[in-house]
Amino acid sequence: MKRGATAPLGLSEQLDLSDVRDWIALLKPRVMSLVVFTGLVGLLVAPGHLHPVLAVTAILCIAVAAGAAGAINMWYDRDIDAVMRRTANRPIPAGRIRAQAALAFGIVLSLASVMVMGLATNWVAAAVLAGSIAFYVFIYTMWLKRRTPQNIVIGGAAGAFPPMIGWAAVTGGISLEAVVMFAIIFFWTPPHFWALSLFASGDYARAGVPMLPVVAGARETRRQIWLYSLLLAPLGLLPTLIGMASWAYGAVALALGAWFLHAMWKVKHDRQDAEGLSLTRDAPARAGFKFSILYLFVLFAALAADILILRGSGL
Ligand code: HEM
Ligand SMILES: CC(C)=CCC/C(C)=C/CC/C(C)=C/COP(=O)(O)OP(=O)(O)O
Predict the structure, then answer these.
(1) Distance CA 142, CA 103 (A)
(2) What is the pTM of this model?
(3) Among residues 195, 199, 234, 288, which one has the fewest Cβ atoms lying within 10 Å of its Cβ?
(4) How far apart are the C-alpha atoms of 195 and 244, rounded to whole Å?
(5) 175-315: which CATH architecture?
(6) Could you say which of 3.40.50.720, 1.10.357.140, 3.40.5.60, 3.20.20.220 is the CATH number of the domain covering 17-172?
(7) Of ligand 1's atoms, which has the minimum distance to the CA of residue 151?
(8) Any transmembrane segments, and where (predicted)?
(9) Cβ(185) to ligand 1 under 6 A?
(10) How far is the CA of 97 from the centre of ligand 2 (A)?
(11) What is the biggest distance separating any 2 CA atoms in the chain, rounded to whole angstroms?
């Protein structure tokens, strides 16, 4: 058939792949991958049984909720994202997705993820899921981010909820083990983010976001990174100390903790100029940021492996 003005579009024309990529980018998939992984670990280590289909549904709900919260964050932050080099090409500031459409997308996905979580698992898990979306959107994004350099310390709690949500999906409640996993991520977030902010502080200064290096300087930021690292390293051992995991996990946590302290010690004593993007490619802050991600991934993987192996062996 010859294509006239009214002829239907072909599938590839209707579904432009670059559009799909932009909608996916709204969900901040790279950052959320680790959020979802920690949620999965919470679900795997929880005592009890959840049908595999429901378990997969629960993890999808965490992924969709985290992504939806990211989309609403990008809607709200479109003005500052446009100013920062790292974020200027995001779909909203770059004009590829309308702000209102992104907001609607985020709200619909948020509501859907909470409803499906409640129906598939239980309403405790759904409530904590709703709470973490609300925390990220209202407490971090809309309230603290533009007001105080403590924004990520308090707001970071949002990213610490997923293991608790996974745990609640299986058990229908929250117990000490879930709180311990929450605490590990809570104290991990400041070194994770402030290491990055040391080499992205020029961006934040331009956008008027009061991140710690902008307000208090690089030296104080390095000091705070070190203090939180000192708290985090022993916290990693808590699962063993409360009898949740064995000493095999404890040994991994100890080694990782020592490695984390080593990486952050180098950040603390780095004397390079921290303004803008002027840190060299191999600057300790860059290495520390990257290592923070590896640390959390390996720590949670070790926790899951330890508990599943112990359970499998009947010990
Ligand atoms: C308030 C808390 C947090 C803040 C402000 C924060 C901020 C950031 C920023 C600005 C980036 C840069 C990369 C990008 O723009 O895509 C990043 C990367 C990343 N964050 Fe965080 N983060 C926080 C908490 C978390 C949590 C709780 C997790 C997971 C448990 C996480 C996991 C990651 C990962 C995996 C990356 C690397 C993404 C990549 O490969 O590009 N973050 N974070
Ligand atoms: C289940 C659920 C709802 C989880 C929420 C997960 C969550 C809050 C993760 C926080 C990580 C994150 C994307 C911070 C970005 O900060 P930013 O928004 O200031 O970074 P940006 O400058 O890159 O936009």
Answers:
(1) 14
(2) 0.92
(3) 234
(4) 30
(5) Up-down Bundle (1.20)
(6) 1.10.357.140
(7) 1
(8) 31-50, 56-76, 97-117, 123-143, 225-242, 248-267, 288-310
(9) yes
(10) 19
(11) 73
* Full pLDDT tens readout for the chain, 315 residues: 334 445 555 555 555 777 899 999 999 999 999 999 999 999 999 999 999 999 999 999 999 999 999 999 999 999 999 999 999 999 999 999 999 999 999 999 999 999 999 999 999 999 999 999 999 999 999 999 999 999 999 998 999 999 999 999 999 999 999 999 999 999 999 999 999 999 888 899 999 999 999 999 999 999 999 999 999 999 999 999 999 999 999 999 999 999 999 999 999 998 765 444 455 556 899 999 999 999 999 999 999 999 999 888 766
Question: Could you give the C-alpha distances from 167 to 109, 251, 305, in angstroms and in order?
Answer: 22, 24, 16
Q: Provide ipTM, 2 decimals.
A: 0.95
Domain ranges of the chain: 17-172, 175-315
CA 289 to ligand 1 centroid distance, Å: 9
* 8 A C-beta contact, residue 128 and residue 43: no
Cβ(302) – ligand 1 distance below 6 Å? no
What residues flank ligand 2, with Cβ below 6 Å? 28, 31, 35, 62, 65-66, 69-70, 73, 77, 87, 129, 132-133, 136, 145, 158-159, 162
Q: Tell me how far the alpha carbon of residue 136 lies from the centroid of ligand 2, in angstroms.
A: 7
Q: Which residue among 27, 61, 78, 140 is best mutated to probe the pocket of ligand 2, counting the most ligand atoms within 8 A of its Cβ? A: 140
